[in-house]
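Continuing the batch. This is chain 6 of the set; chains 1 through 5 are on the previous pages. Same settings as before, nothing changed between runs. Recording input and output for traceability.
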Amino acid sequence: MEPMTMSPDNIAVDAIRPGLEFLYAASAQLADPIQIGQTADGMRRIIPILSGMVEGPGIRGHILGGGSDWQLLRPDGVTVADATYAIETDDGAVIQIRNRGLRHGPADVMARLAAGEPVDPSAYYFRTVPEFIAPVGPYEWLNSSIFICSGARYFDSIRLWVWRVT
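Output for chain 6:
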């Protein structure tokens, strides 16, 4: 069966297909998790974000300390990430980011990840949708686009790759 190339209203699907434009790669150091414990909707914990770097063709700077990821481990094994933090660009702009998404994979892979073992990020699903709040100026374009992110979790750090949906 061939993929549909026309939408029901005769618009060429390829003509409206979103593209991706690489924005940056980020790495951040994380503190030990703060366990909240079991709640009605699953296990909750807080992961403090200590510091990090952001580098790419669209933006360069560092991650400011003081942010955190308020995580929920659902009963179905899916981790829901909800991180809020800020970056300071090399030219002095401070940009707030709220990054929400999901991480899951085969039970054995997730157990290795939870134990702090190195795991190839292609072995599990880790996708988020960062939302930016940028001040008026050279980065305000961040306020008017949709972004997606792929992530990799390590024992005490995280790596993120962010694209703008065009």
